[in-house]
Amino acid sequence: MFSADKAKAFYLDCLQVQGQAPLDNHLRFCQQIDDEANP
């Protein structure tokens, strides 16, 4: 699991990657990556 600082940076990276997508898509994308990183 990520530390708080890493989780925040990770989330901000997700927002940048997703660009103009709605917030729910940001969250879904981040959760997908998190699931893959922590099976």
Automatic annotation (TrEMBL):
It comes from the Bacteria. This is Uncharacterized protein. It comes from Pseudomonas putida ND6.
